[in-house]
Specification:
Elements (H helix, E strand, L loop, with lengths): L2 E7 L12 E7 L7 E10 L3 H5 L17 E11 L9 E7 L3 E5 L6 E2 L17 H13 L7 E5 L4 H12 L3 E6 L2 H9 L4 E4 L6 H8 L4 E6 L3 H7 L3 E9 L3 H4 L13 H4 L3 E4 L6 H17 L6 E5 L4 H9 L6 E5 L1
Parallel strand pairs: 8-9, 8-11, 9-10, 11-12, 12-13, 14-15
Antiparallel strand pairs: 1-2, 3-4, 3-6, 3-15, 4-5, 5-7
Helix pairs in contact: 2-3, 2-9
Length: 335
């Protein structure tokens, strides 16, 4: 059967991940058992949430063990199958491991079949037409309950999820303000149709900048950052505003010293709903979400942003670059 390539956790990162935290290795090719199927990775997803899996602390999945393959979302092609529902040639995405071949079953978390449309590059089904788009849709509409005419603020707005949130909010008729970390990223989101862009590194008072472009206040905050960013934005929320907490990338590299948000009283003052979410807890809306994402791409209202690397061995450096804030759009590795 040959060998399978793996990216292992060589040591737990201290702060920002570095190449020495990872190890490229080989193992025996896995053999599918009853009901299982062997998948060849075609697109590996690089996500900020992976940073939380590398620490030895509780999360919504078990932490990665030292010497074990990194966990992450992957899109692949079935190359051997003992499951009639997933014959050879089927494209699937699921939460898997950083291996160029891996086993799945019908019970695998996040498992979905992928139906590639002609003219659409496969990697987009791990981005705006995949988990990224579904996460943006669920957080914005199922959790944040964004409605036409409302004002939406999104942090990390030039990233994978943030850039998608802004575009689909505009597609639904919302006013959108994006917060980014450079002048170049401001240009990116303006080009995507955001109504306003704020460079948090260049302004000492984010709330004042929001007030300039949204004096009426904020109805929905899509939070990818947490910490000081969340603290600054809560006072800008309107009565009965909603905060959809997708991630807290501002703390992933220093989870031992979480930032204490001092403005949580605003939740009471303005009766704000603040809720964290995991996309696949919302299975009942994913078909609608996928349909609308496909439609918006077809109409040109959603332009997928992708930062694509090539080759299985590129996964660790792609992840390091993502966590260092050096990327725009969805970071993906094509195999």
């Amino acid at each position: 059967m040959g060998k399978v390539q793996q990216i292992l956790l060589a040591r737990r990162p201290e702060g920002m991940p570095v190449p020495e935290d990872f190890q490229l290795a080989e193992a025996e090719m896995p053999v599918p058992g009853d009901g299982e199927f062997l998948v060849a990775m075609r697109v590996g997803s690089v996500d900020p949430a992976i940073r939380g899996f590398l620490d030895d602390r509780p999360s919504y999945i078990e932490p990665v063990a030292l010497g074990a393959p990194i966990n992450g979302m992957s899109l692949g092609e079935v190359v051997e199958s003992n499951n009639a529902d997933y014959p050879v040639g089927t494209l699937v995405r699921a939460f898997a491991t950083w291996q160029d071949h891996y086993l799945l079953s019908s019970e695998s978390w996040g498992l979905e079949k992928v139906h590639q449309r002609g003219g659409t590059e496969l990697h987009h089904y791990m981005g705006a037409l995949g988990p990224v788009g579904l996460t943006a849709w669920v957080g914005l509409f199922a959790v944040g309950e964004a409605k036409p005419g409302e004002t939406v603020v999104v942090s990390a707005a030039a990233g994978a999820t943030g850039s998608t949130v802004g575009q689909i909010a505009k597609a639904r008729g919302c006013k959108v303000i994006g917060i980014v970390g450079s002048i170049e990223k401001m240009d990116v989101i303006r080009d995507l149709g955001f109504d306003a862009a704020i460079d948090y590194r260049a302004t000492p008072d984010i709330a004042a900048e929001i007030a300039k472009v949204a004096p009426e206040g904020v109805d929905v905050y899509f939070d990818n950052v947490g910490g000081e960013m969340l603290e600054a934005i809560l006072p800008s929320m309107r009565l009965h505003g909603r905060v959809a907490v997708c991630g807290m990338i501002g703390q992933y590299n220093d989870a031992d010293h979480p930032y204490g948000v001092k403005t949580l009283w605003q939740l009471v003052v303005n009766r704000i709903k603040m809720q964290g979410f995991i996309t696949y807890d919302y299975q009942h809306v994913l078909a609608q979400a996928q349909s609308e994402l496909d439609e918006w791409v077809g109409q040109g209202k959603l332009r997928p942003l992708a930062n694509v690397r090539d080759g299985f061995a590129a996964l660790p450096q792609a992840f390091i670059d993502l966590m260092s804030g050096r990327t725009v759009g969805k970071t993906l590795v094509c195999i």
